Amino acid sequence: MKRRTMALDHPYRQLPIPTNAPFELKPSPGRGWGAFATRRIERGALILSEEPLFTIRKPHAEITNEVLLRALQKLPASRKRMFFLLRDNASGAFQSLKHAFAENSFNMASEDHTTGRQLDCLHGLFLLHSRFNHSCSPNSKVPVTVTGGEITHLQSFATRDIAPGEEIAFSYAADFGCRTREERHRELRFVCNCDACQPGTPFQELSDMRRRLVRGLQYLQTGVDLDGRRQDAPDRPLIADPQLKRAAETFRIPLSSRFIYGLLVMSLLEQEGLLDDFLAERLSRNVWVPFAAFETESNVQVAKLAMAQQDWLGRLCVAFQLYGRADAADQALATLFQSLSGR
Ligand SMILES: C[S@@+](CC[C@H](N)C(=O)[O-])C[C@H]1O[C@@H](n2cnc3c(N)ncnc32)[C@H](O)[C@@H]1O
């Protein structure tokens, strides 16, 4: 009874949820409060479009308590009051303004279209999007990458159909599809209790294996690890075969292998439940580019047959015939990649 009263009086009840929003805020066992669907939300549907309470145009390291205090002082009283409704995982007050901002802000920086480099440092405090919990098997996404222009709103979308009553959660990091449970928890600094994180379950073990494989495959495709560097961890190498690793780093991976690696990544992410429409659009380039580059006629025919299949696993199964086959475009492509990378 006491718990129920506490929930009814909770400051989060005063947060300004749009009237037509498909979610409500309420306690989420083991995760403070969270957002829960109040009706069925279809894959691809917009969940929330939100303006920041305020923004700070500085690198993260320079956002101090003083900087935040000055920003808050400029806010009208009603908006300032909103900020002080925030609680550390729905319970006590935050230790500092800095901590409150870190837990409730999103990077809003836009990117250069060609280099992918961030154009500026812009962080926004979002009262509602920050109430959504994290999941390593999410059902929604906040695609923050905007090329050119400035981001004025943060938007979240359903990445699969969400049932009424289901918690809506997105992944707090973009590269978790390539990270094992242990690596994810180290980065999150809390122990996530989603399906992919339940220790000792067959799904969790398989999930770790799939995500490690995806990371290795992306190394073979790009010649670098997630941090943009070559990996040198002899105790736990991503690519155990030194010759293969060297081939990746010098862009000598044959076209047929590139095509298969691209398809394998799509299939693994699909089986992991992570292949949402945003990710599929981005990663399918790693399939379509090798597909378009084949020059040897017999390879072109198999690749066409593969891509005519219904799903990624079907395409992969057909494409496997190409494994180990050379293509007339191999040498020219290696030279092109080498010159583009400067390696
Ligand atoms: C941005 S807040 C999310 C909303 C928060 N639960 C609240 O009540 O305000 C992030 C914090 O929520 C908790 N959290 C989020 N996702 C979680 C998860 N999957 N498992 C456990 N705790 C989680 C962690 O304490 C994390 O630091």
UniProtKB/TrEMBL annotation:
Cross-referenced CDD domains: SET_SMYD
PROSITE patterns: SET
Entries under Gene3D superfamilies matching the protein: SET domain (2.170.270.10)
Pfam families: SET
All copies of domain SET, residue ranges: 21-173
Domain of life according to the entry: Eukaryota
InterPro entries xrefs: SET_dom, SET_dom_sf, SET_domain_protein
Record protein name field: SET domain-containing protein
Source organism of the structure: Echria macrotheca
Lineage, top ranks: Eukaryota, Fungi, Dikarya, Ascomycota, Pezizomycotina
